[in-house]
Structures are given as C-alpha cells and as structure tokens.
Amino acid sequence: MSEQNGPTTANLDLSDPSTDPFEVARAAAAVIAEKTGAERHDVALVLGSGWGQTGDLIGETLATIDNSEVPGFAKAAVAGHSGTMRSVAIGDTGRRALVYGTRTHFYEGKGVRAVVHAVRTAAAAGCRTIVLTNGCGGLNPDWAPGTPVLIRDHLNLTATSPIEGANFVDLTDLYTPRLRDLARSVDPELDEGVYVQFRGPHYETPAEVQMAKVLGGDLVGMSTTLEAIAARQAGLDVLGISLVTNLAAGISDQPLSHEEVIEAGQAAAERCGRLLSAVVAQI
C-alpha cells in the first residue's frame, strides 16, 4: 500500500505508541474489501468459545480470509477458535456479515489495541452493529452448560480501557436494549445478566467468583468488555451473548477445564446458530 493511498507497512504495528490504531483499522478494512469484493459489510460477529459453528447458519460464505493476511490481525491463539474471517451473505437481503472466527484476548499480552482491533476494523468496513459472543462461567445454578444468556451490562475488571486520551464515552445502555428485545423475540426463553471480565488466562478462584456475585455479576469470563467499549466509541450498536459452558468456580464442585468449554459449545451449536442467524437477519 502506497503512502498516498494509506498507511505504510512501517506504521501498521499496533504495539507502536506512535501508530494510529484507527489508521490500521482503515487499512485492514481496505484489504477486507479487496479480498471479499464487498465495498462494505453491515453486521460483524465475533465468535467466541463455543460459537464457532454458528457462522455457517447465517448464510452462504462468499469469501474466507486468513487473519495473517489482514493488517493488525494474528492467528488464533485458543483451541476451538478459527484463525480466519469470513464474508457471509445474510440470507437473500443483499447485506453482508463480517464473521470473525477468533478474537485477541487481553491475556495474550499484545496490548489493548490488538484486543479491540477487530471491532474498529468492523466499523471501518461499514458495519453499524456488532454481535459479541463468548463462552463463560455461570453464577446462576439454573443456567446449565449450553445455555445462551444476553449480556445486559458488564463489569470491566481488567484495569484498562481501549479509549486513549480525554475521550469521555458514555456507556449507558452499552448493550443496545433494542437488540436484546430483538433476540428475545427470536428466543423468548433467553435470560440476561451482567458479564464480568477478569484478566485471565487462569480461571477465577471461588472467592473471586463470590466477589463478582456480590458486585452484581452473573457471568464471568476473559473477553468482551473491552471490545464492547471500543464498539461504543466507534458508534456501533452492540449485542452481547454469553454461552454458559460451565458453572463458575465454587458454584459447582467440578474442576474447570477448557475441554469442557469446547464440549458445551459443540452441544449447543445448533441452538446458538439458529438464534444468531435469526437475529442477524432482522438487524
């Protein structure tokens, strides 16, 4: 890419403080447009643990791009995630969904800019709505593994923010009420709760889970809140959905494992896929 048309290779390093992360997002969006043949995308989805198969039910995949081919993106670092992004037709509406098969987690140590780069790229690609999904631990014993739960609000316990400088972004109704209502119109049994992000990658201790509960949390995990904040800064509507893959530490007497997360996601894939495809079609 020439200097006249956009950022040069030298200043696409998100870890460099002198780099403008929004310039990198625009460069990434330009590559996505070129490789997909789509001038713009309308909705973006980030598929977390347990949600990997759901993109297949949204519509026909028209293009698949390896993350390593797009500025600012990297290969998947977590088992159960896909290191590609897809351009998917939303039924026969003529609209496109940009489906990310993985995310960069804060615990990977790549910095918060890398964590929210997919969100900023989605906005630069034309998306006005983003669906953030994750696999998480549940604090409500009634939420069996495989239960999808809408995110109503969050507690960000990472001690950081993706917003740089004196930019004071209002997070009231961060998780768009209209989209939660839309999801419930598709699946009236959907419950909702407050998602709590810890830094990870270790699972929470029983005492930390109880702390989250006292603070008002219902779901615990290691992603999503930083992405949601960046999405609001970018002007995107946000729908957050957690898949309860296990009861959080201390809620159940069973030990926690990532294999359990993957198994619960596979078992719930069809329900989650139908839910997302129906919601995306109506956004």
TrEMBL record:
Q: Which residues form the Nucleoside phosphorylase domain?
A: 43-281
Q: What is its EC number?
A: 2.4.2.1
User: What pathway is this protein a component of?
Assistant: Purine metabolism; purine nucleoside salvage
Asked whether the UniProt record includes Glycosyltransferase among its keywords, one would answer yes
- Catalyzed reactions per annotation: a purine 2'-deoxy-D-ribonucleoside + phosphate = a purine nucleobase + 2-deoxy-alpha-D-ribose 1-phosphate
Sorted alphabetically, which keywords does the UniProt record give?
Answer: Glycosyltransferase, Transferase
Cellular component terms per the entry's GO annotation: cytoplasm
Per its UniProt record, what Gene3D superfamilies does this chain match? Nucleoside phosphorylase domain
State where a purine D-ribonucleoside binds: E204, N246
Question: Which segment of the chain is annotated as a signal peptide?
Answer: none
Which residues hold phosphate?
S49, H81, R103, T104, H105, G135, S223
Biological process (GO) annotations held by this record are: nucleoside metabolic process
Molecular function (GO) terms for this protein are:
purine-nucleoside phosphorylase activity
User: Which enzyme type, at the first EC level?
Assistant: transferase
InterPro entries, alphabetized: Nucleoside_phosphorylase_d, Nucleoside_phosphorylase_sf, PUNP, Purine_phosphorylase
What role does it play? Answer: The purine nucleoside phosphorylases catalyze the phosphorolytic breakdown of the N-glycosidic bond in the beta-(deoxy)ribonucleoside molecules, with the formation of the corresponding free purine bases and pentose-1-phosphate. Cleaves guanosine, inosine, 2'-deoxyguanosine and 2'-deoxyinosine.
Concerning PANTHER family, the annotation shows: METHYLTHIOADENOSINE/PURINE NUCLEOSIDE PHOSPHORYLASE, PURINE NUCLEOSIDE PHOSPHORYLASE-RELATED
**Its quaternary structure?**
Homotrimer.
**UniProt family annotation:** Belongs to the PNP/MTAP phosphorylase family.
Output this protein's name.
Answer: Purine nucleoside phosphorylase
From which organism does this entry originate? Knoellia koreensis
Organism lineage reads as:
Bacteria, Bacillati, Actinomycetota, Actinomycetes, Micrococcales
